[in-house]
Design a protein that fits this description.
The complex is a heterodimer of chains A (152) and B (142). Chain A has 152 residues and is an alpha+beta fold. Chain A has 2 domains: 37 residues; 101 residues. Chain A has 5 helices and 5 strands. In chain A, strands 2-1-4-3 form a 4-stranded antiparallel β-sheet. In chain A, a hairpin with a 5-residue loop joins strand 1 and strand 2. Chain B has 142 residues and is an alpha+beta fold. Chain B has 2 domains: 35 residues; 99 residues, no CATH class. In chain B, strand 3 and strand 4 form a beta hairpin. The longest helix of chain B has 28 residues. Chain B is elongated and about 80 Å long. Classes of the chains: A alpha+beta (152), B alpha+beta (142). Strand 5 of chain A pairs antiparallel with strand 4 of chain B.
Chain lengths: 152, 142
């Protein structure tokens, strides 16, 4: 049987090497995650605010009683919502009134993405408010908007 | 009995460890420089201010406490008066606690935000508020 001096010591140093590599990589991951991490998730709050504005406006302006589509222009004018913000690819308003008249602003695909299981953990997916009243008026409002870092 | 080369093997590992420790110290200082959560506060307040604007009726005045943001900005020599900027043309709230960068968030309520300013009554960053009024939009975007 052959014994070699220093084998255990050398092996121990490789363990230190590995441990330090783990500490450094862990620190980097933690630090970068702390800085560039998910941040504050405001998607549901924003969807709720949007829903409140839409519902209030539809009741006030009688849009729930429409029997033909009036187009988006009238909606933006009467409801005081900004088309620039709502047609930016990160918002959706979908309403189907009791007469079957559909009204859509924003990303059509949100009607599907609003119901995906990953929506709570994936910030790129929208979180939505879904509502149906007793008369059969159906509303979905959703947003996937997140803050953007900009240079000044 | 002494084995030849044993000293150089030891030296090699000591150099490795010294390099690792130096690298760790440099990375720690880098990460630590961001540990004041300035990015988080920028993100949080841009969203909160947008949320306030979204739910506002024309004529409403807001006073929002932004002290944590001001404290981090103060450490980075950012002037307190430049912490928040409202871009009515693009419906954006821009919050910045750093000198050349910031965070923006859009609001959907079609209103104009006027008379906005950052107030620091005691003169330091510990009592800082963002004050603004919401008025009906005078521009025709549609």
């Amino acid at each position: 049987m052959k014994f070699r001096k220093g084998v255990i010591g050398e092996g121990g140093l490789y363990f230190v090497f590995l441990l330090m590599a783990i500490i450094i990589l862990g620190g980097l991951y933690g630090g970068l995650n702390a800085y560039f991490g998910d941040g504050y998730d405001s998607r549901l709050d924003e969807s709720n605010s949007l829903f409140n504005k839409v519902q209030e406006c539809f009741i006030k302006e009688g849009f729930f009683d429409l029997t033909s589509n009036t187009g988006n222009y009238l909606f933006f004018e009467k409801c005081g919502l900004s088309p620039k913000s709502l047609e930016d690819g990160e918002h959706m308003i979908y309403v189907k009134n009791k007469n079957g008249i559909e009204f859509l602003i924003g990303v059509t695909d949100f009607k599907i993405r609003c119901f995906l299981d990953e929506r709570y953990s994936d910030l790129n997916l929208p979180l939505c408010k879904v509502y149906e009243d007793l008369e059969g008026n159906y509303i979905i409002t959703g947003t996937s908007q997140n803050s953007k870092r900009i240079a000044l | 009995m002494y084995k030849k080369g044993g000293t150089s093997l030891m030296l090699e590992h000591i150099i490795y460890i010294v390099i690792f420790i130096s690298f760790f110290i440099v990375m720690y200082s880098f990460v630590n420089s961001y540990a004041d959560r300035s990015a988080f506060f920028e993100d949080f307040y841009s969203k909160k201010i947008s949320q306030a604007i979204n739910s506002a009726k024309p004529g409403t005045e807001f006073k929002i406490d932004i002290t944590p943001l001001a404290v981090t900005a103060f450490k980075r020599n950012k002037p307190i008066k430049d912490l928040v900027y409202i871009d009515n043309l693009n419906n954006e709230v821009v919050v910045s606690s750093r000198l050349n960068a910031g965070t923006s968030f859009k609001f959907f309520n079609d209103v104009d935000v006027v008379d906005w300013f950052v107030e620091s009554p005691s003169g330091d960053s510990k009592t800082t508020r963002f004050i603004f009024k919401v008025k009906e939009n005078q521009r025709n975007e549609i």
